[in-house]
Amino acid sequence: MGCWNKTCGLSNLHIYAGDEVYVFVLSENTDKTDRCYSTAFWSPLLLPFYSQYNDYGGGENSHGAAFQTIMNAVAENLIEMDVGENQYHDIAVKREGFGEEQFFEAVHENRLFTKGWRGAQCAVDFVMFRKDIVDYILDNRVIESYVGDGKGTGGYRNNYIHYKFQDILTDIPEFINKIQDMGKTSSLKSVLDELKLDPVSNAKKIEELEDLIFDMSIQRGFENVFEWRHPNKVSQWVRGDGYRYSSIIRISELVTKLVRTGQIEEATQILTDHLKAQFIDGFMSATRHNWGPAGHEGSQSAEVDDYRVLLSAITNALDKEKQEWEEENEE
Predict the structure, then answer these.
(1) What angle do CA 229, 284, 299 make, to 5 degrees?
(2) Which of 7, 68, 126, 292 is 20 to 30 A from 14 via CA?
(3) Which residues are CB-neighbours of 158 under 8 A, at least 6 positions away?
C-alpha cells in the first residue's frame, strides 16, 4: 500500500506526513433528509484529539486530554467483528486492546460501526483538520454578538459586542465554579431544614442529597449551569441542539464528573477542547462547510497555485457584493 497526502476537512488543503492535526470522530447520519446544517451527513463528536498524520491515511502519536476517553468510548460502543472472508482487509475489530492503531485501521477498512439511534448500525469515521488552519481561525475569528439597549461596544447604536475565542476561555473558571456550587443550593438548605438533619451526625446523608440535587440540576447537560442569556460566554457556547452531534461521549457528564471529583485541571482542558470544537463548528456553518470524512484518498497532489486562484476568485466576488451593497445604501 502506497502513501498519500491527507485532505484537511476544513480548508481542503493537503496534509503532509508528520503534520499536526486535530482529529474529530464522526458518526454517520442515517437520516440525510435535513440539509440545513453542517451536520447534514455526519455528526461530529465535539471533542477533538491531537495527532500527526502518518502518511497512510491515519494518525500517530495521538494525544490530548480526551484522547483515551474517546478511544474507550468508541470501544465500549463498537460492534465487534471477526476476521472476514478477505483476511487482509476484513480485519477483526474488538474492544479488547482497542486504541489509536485499531481506530485508524478499522476506519480505513470500513469496519468501524456502533449502534446508533434505535439500535441501527452506524458507521464511525473521522476527519482531520490541519492544526495551523484551526489555530489561525481560533486566533483571528471575531464574533459579533447582539446585547441590545446600547449596552455593547460597537455596531449599530452600540448594540453589539465583539470578541474572540480567547475571550471565551477567560470565562471558564466562573463556569466551573458554578458547577461546583450546583449541589449546594438553597434547594438543599430547604430540604435539610424540613428534614431537620443535623449536619454533623448526618454528613453522609447530606452528601447523598447534594449528589441527588446536583444530578437533577445537570440532567439537561450544561443548560442549567447559568440561566439563558447569562453573560458568561462559556455558557452561551455550550448550549444548543446537542441532538445533531455524536453522543458517543456526553461531554457535559464528563466535565461535571471531573469537577465533582476535584479534577479541575483535566475538566478545564476538556472544556477548552470542547469549546474549540464548538467555535470551529460555528465557523463551518458560517462558511457553508459540511462535516464529513475528507476525500481524495490516495492523492499526493499539492497544487498550491490553484488554491490561490480560488482564494482570489472568492475575494473578488465578496468585494463586488460589498461594493454593490454600499452603493445601494449610500455608504
Answers:
(1) 160
(2) 68
(3) 150, 151, 152
